[in-house]
Amino acid sequence: MNFCSPETWSNFAGEFIALWTDDTHAYALFKGEFLAVELTGGAYPALSVRHPGAGWFERLTKDLNGHEAQGAHHTATAIEHFRAPDGTAPWPEFATPHAEGLHQIAVGPIHAGIIEPGHFRFSVIGEKILKLEARLGYSHKGTLGLMRGKSPRLAARFAARVSGDATVAHSLAFAHAAESALHMHIPERAVFLRAVMSELERIANHTSDIGAIAGDAGFAFLDARFAWHRESFCAAAQSAFGHRLMMDVVIPGGVAADIFPAGPVAILRALDALEMELPSLQRVFEDYASLQDRLVGTGHISTHLAEKYAAGGFTGRASGRRTDARQDPGYAPYNTVALAIPVETEGDVAARIRIRLAEIVESIRLIRLFLDLPRTPIAVAPPQSSGIGLGVAESFRGSAWHWLKIESGLITNAFIADPSTLHWPLLEHAAITGIVADFPLINKSINASYSGVDL
Q: Domain count of the chain?
């Protein structure tokens, strides 16, 4: 960690990843650099002026800790809507473009179907979207406060529930942070089991997303087939690890339980079935002009924007960014394999689907390699010691980061950065490249987590 002056803080030109505060300092994580600046009167210089991706983090620090980012342009609440000292507050204003014939469409926070809560305000002329503003915070859970005062083993349950579809990734990032802070060495079998679970989670989410996008484009057959495969992977996870989402299996020190005897066979059966049908499903995407017409050019995110917001996962890779935390900064066991990272440059819905399809193929290969498990113990007990640790794991959306401060075996401070925090602004940008009817396709193709940013 580099303790720096306010001038160095404000002018740092690296790739921004996350920002948070504690009682005395503000911290900023950049690619390859970790900065800290002392708070002055509960305030720190805003980074969002130079790094727009810092905007949500600055609003979050104000809501959670009362610390102000001096010079920030966007100061709306992140999660504490309708709060005031007297118990009341006005409805927050939306910035509306001024144009003849413009009207607004309000969607959410309650949506049709099973979906997290979020409010979308569209400013449109006819079907053309001129502006989209997303308001989140409705799934604020107090996760960081719940972690404080608990041991890493107890707090791991809250990390697993940051975003249910990335429970393995967040559990792994949390475990990496705790293990770094406490200087723990993890048994090799646990390392490989964690990787098997991570790749299973990646495939399950990619199949779900691809099917849902196709379904919104009117191709119910694709939606049904990909949903069937997602179900087969959830069932295989249940057979292997006792939980369909593999929740609470990854813990600081290793894994909570070994893979069940029937697990490897169930996993391999699901892999074989998907691998056999995937080429024919992919040809449907490629051969049907009516489907390509809905996907190609829709929801465009330029490489410039992706770089500006340090987009990760399939969102970043579809816009030309070769980023993957499994490789950079890297962690075991991915350092033992030649990891293939697909990259596209078109930056549209179609490119994000192609990235997902390529990642499914790579995850199938990795799982088969990692199922050759070493014969070692599966966990070690965390020591009752002190330290500060930073951990990362590559979720299916991108890099999830966890920061922990531990004193005598108990967590005194924590922060979590889900990749969605940098992707929500990109959704707002991508939406204005399309019409209202295309928004479900664009939204699902990015699939930012609501819960992941509502800490």
A: 2
